[in-house]
Predict the structure.
Amino acid sequence: PRHLLLLLSLLYTTDAFTSASFFSLPRHSVTTKAEPEVIRTSYDLALNSIALSTAFIPGEKGSLAIGENPTAAKIAAFAAGIPLFLFGAFMAYQTTNLRFTFDDTSFALVKSDLSSTGENVVVGGENKWPYKDIVNYDFFPSSEFPVLVYFKETQTSKDEWMVGPGEAANSPGAIAKGAVPGQVHFFPAIGNVKALKAGFESHDCGKI
């Protein structure tokens, strides 16, 4: 009996220690990062450019390759038609391989597999911008007929703000009219513009 009591005592002590150790373990809350919203693609810019380029095919009914001098008309047609076709083909390639995304904190341009596109080829830095740094956005020539997605941000170093179109966008005249200083970006409208606009609005991005 004494040996049995000793065994039961050891079992009780071990069980109590194990239970106490289990419940005293630190508990860490697991936070999962929400998946980014991927803006659906739009091939409108690519297809419209290619369609317009076919209007310059010489000899076709309704062709724009007309004129008193057939040779000059053909040259002019090819000069406009071929660049438009190449532009449309390039836009189709970009639309297939790039995506606009909105995550918890930032707007980004990424590859179709959602990996990084690397550094911005114009001003450097990742193609990802916090919402708090976006001071304006728009679509040109309009949201109904979008060719370019425009936005301005302050994340990029001020040393780059006057590069390219930034010189006009940050000029004293533009600032006097209400513009906010920042880095200007233009991207082709390869994503659904209504969804892009809704994304900028829902994340409280700056708008002038």
